[in-house]
Each structure stands twice: as structure tokens, then as C-alpha cells.
Design goal:
Blueprint (H helix, E strand, L loop, with lengths): L1 H10 L19 H4 L3 E4 L6 H10 L3 E4 L5 H14 L4 E3 L5 H17 L6 E8 L9 H13 L5 E3 L7 E8 L6 E7 L4 E7 L4 H15 L4 E2 L1 H4 L3
Parallel strand pairs: 1-2, 2-3, 3-9, 4-6, 5-6
Antiparallel strand pairs: 4-7, 7-8
Amino acid sequence: MGKMIEEIAHSRGHEIVSIIDIDNQEEFDSDAFASADVAIEFTTPASAWDNVQHCWARGVKVVSGSTGWMKDHADEVRQACEGGGKTLLWASNFSIGVNIFAAVNRYLARIMNQFPQYDVQMEETHHVHKLDHPSGTAITLGEEIVERIDRKQGWAEDTTDPSLLRIDHIRRGEVAGIHTVRYDSEADLITIRHEAHSRKGFALGAVLAAEFTRNHQGALTISDMFKF
């Protein structure tokens, strides 16, 4: 992701002033890093919140695509952005295609709320290196279904509880990401699916998010950038 983001940023006329990984954390204190308009943060749940705070401490806005940490720090993020003048755009997935898919998912869920004969389930497939499950994107898609379908009270993995949306995960090869939503009934099956051919779409979306964040303030979401 980092290499792709760097290539796309350069192709769009941006300058990369600092690249930080686990081996050069002292770079957060450099003048080069402090000169950045926006930092793009793609790491792990264990390090993401610390990274965001390091960026804020140097007056740098943040775009974060790290999943698995926001649920534990949402209140702190809100306070920092609303009362402390900080800026963060967080999303579980920056891909333009995934966000179009998410809009279709929300629209379809509203329709299917009227038809209880259809049960809904989800499945996500990713590369074998992805440790968390279900994916952050699957969780976001699932939560948006639950918000719109009255007969679902939440989501869970490997569940047989009809009141819960079941989300299954598969880890295979180098799959960039596949998300599938199925509405099944005795009469028929309705399926929507997004399959990423590579991680390039995520990287482009992250750079577009940084361009957007540069000129906006506060706690931002992907919905602020994509108006659909």
C-alpha cells in the first residue's frame, strides 16, 4: 500500500516529504514531517492510535485506513477534532468501487427490510497475510445492513441466530479483497459483490482522501468526500 500510495501521489503532482515505518519512529519529530499538509496512515490496530496522536502533535492532519482501533478511541477522536482543532479522515476502505458498492448495499437493505422472507448473509475473502477478521470493510457493510433491516439486531461470525447477520471470512492466496452480500429465500437469491483486482483502488482513494482532507477540518468520514 505504501509504495502504491507513493506512486499515485507523485503522479498527481504531490511531494512526499517523509516516510515513516517501525524502524524510524524518530522521524515524527523531524522538520520534514512537520511540514506535511496531510499524513496517510496505514498500519495496524496496535499502532494506529499512537501514530495519529504523533501526527496531531506536529500539527499534521491525518487520513487513516487502519482498521480495528477506531471503536476503542471514537470518543477521544471526537473530542480532539471537535474541541481540540484536530483533523482525521478515517475509513475502513478508500476504494471508489467499494464505496459505490456500499451505497448500493445501503439502498438494497432499505428495500429488503420490507421482505422478511429473505435472509441476509455476508462473506469476505482476503489474502492469507490479513490477520483480522472479519475485515473492517465487512464490518462497516454489515453495520449498515443492520441499521436498515429491523429483523437483524447485530452481526456475528459463525452464527445460526436468525436475529444476527452472519459474516463469514475466507483467507486465500493473495486475494486483494472480495465482499459478497446475499439475500436468500425459498424462491430466489439476490447477490451483490465487489471484487478488487489489486490494491491500487485503495491507494488511489487514500490519495484522493488526503487531497480532500487538506482543505477540510474535524472528524471526517468517507461520506463527506463521496456524496452518494
